[in-house]
């Protein structure tokens, strides 16, 4: 068996156990735990809940998402296990974690898709409302998140190319990591457009506004996947440059952590879902 796969098996097992615990707990939300989970989501999207029925509806949506993800999680890990089996046995450095990041990226794509697909359940005999105009990716995806992720991925790719051509064949995995980040960005863009156009309906305007907020949360979270892979490529390139005997590469060891830290700070301070709700529902911006 590949030694890289053997070394990563405990990490894979731990990740899968934590993921299953997380999703199973979400699937069994009730009582105070459900209230805390719903309020946590409300905090992320910058909205309030003024009706118990609405809170219950959001909690039910979270439970269905948890059940779907608990079932899907083991299958989502397969690409990462295949990658670990394929990687060279002598892989070292930060790029050693590439299979784990592949699992995280696939998990995020799946979770965002489930979050939109498992919308509010409606009774066929009850009234319903829908948006007059079909939503697009631009309605939900924060421009700073989208453009910033693109710039970050391209910067990581450029730094990885410099590292590969300067260090040699032993840095080939850096180039592969950067290519995977670009591929993940393409998938995120296409998936964001598809999820934005998914049929949307709700019982009333409050529920429709919440559906927009939850969609915005899921669609912006898609960009975590390419960002994480690009960050891994950038970090690995910086470490490789710091260890290189080529002094021309040493500036990379300073540029990469600064760029990574700046991108992390920007990502943490923004609230893209809240901004999307304010754009789509300006009359309810304070709700």
Automatic annotation (TrEMBL):
<keyword id="KW-0472">Membrane</keyword>
<feature type="transmembrane region" description="Helical">
    <location>
        <begin position="213"/>
        <end position="236"/>
    </location>
</feature>
<feature type="transmembrane region" description="Helical">
    <location>
        <begin position="100"/>
        <end position="122"/>
    </location>
</feature>
<feature type="transmembrane region" description="Helical">
    <location>
        <begin position="143"/>
        <end position="165"/>
    </location>
</feature>
<protein>
    <submittedName>
        <fullName>Uncharacterized protein</fullName>
    </submittedName>
</protein>
<keyword id="KW-0812">Transmembrane</keyword>
<feature type="transmembrane region" description="Helical">
    <location>
        <begin position="68"/>
        <end position="88"/>
    </location>
</feature>
<keyword id="KW-1133">Transmembrane helix</keyword>
<feature type="transmembrane region" description="Helical">
    <location>
        <begin position="171"/>
        <end position="192"/>
    </location>
</feature>
<feature type="transmembrane region" description="Helical">
    <location>
        <begin position="248"/>
        <end position="269"/>
    </location>
</feature>
């Amino acid at each position: 068996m590949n030694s890289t796969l053997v070394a990563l098996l405990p990490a894979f097992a731990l990740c899968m156990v934590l993921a299953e615990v997380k999703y199973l707990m979400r699937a069994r939300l009730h009582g105070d735990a459900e209230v805390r989970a719903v309020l946590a989501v409300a905090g992320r999207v910058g909205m309030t809940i003024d009706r118990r029925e609405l809170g219950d509806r959001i909690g039910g949506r979270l439970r269905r998402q948890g059940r779907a993800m608990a079932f899907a999680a083991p299958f989502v890990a397969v690409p990462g296990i295949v990658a670990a089996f394929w990687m060279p046995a002598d892989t070292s450095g930060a790029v050693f974690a590439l299979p784990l990041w592949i699992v995280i990226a696939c998990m995020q794509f799946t979770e965002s898709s489930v979050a939109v697909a498992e919308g509010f359940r409606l009774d066929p005999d009850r009234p319903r409302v829908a948006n007059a105009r079909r939503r697009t990716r631009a309605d939900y995806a924060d421009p700073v998140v989208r453009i910033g992720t693109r710039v970050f991925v391209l910067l990581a790719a450029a730094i990885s190319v410099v590292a590969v051509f300067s260090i040699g064949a032993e840095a080939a995995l850096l180039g592969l990591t950067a290519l995977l980040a670009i591929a993940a960005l393409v998938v995120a863009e296409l998936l964001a457009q598809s999820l934005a156009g998914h049929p949307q309906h709700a019982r009333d305007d409050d529920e429709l506004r919440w559906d927009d907020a939850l969609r915005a949360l899921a669609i912006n979270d898609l960009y975590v996947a390419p960002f994480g892979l690009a960050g891994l490529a950038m970090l690995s390139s910086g470490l490789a440059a710091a260890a290189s005997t080529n002094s021309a590469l040493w500036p990379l060891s300073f540029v990469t952590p600064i760029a990574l830290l700046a991108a992390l700070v920007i990502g943490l301070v923004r609230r893209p879902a809240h901004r999307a709700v304010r754009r789509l529902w300006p009359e309810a911006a304070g709700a």
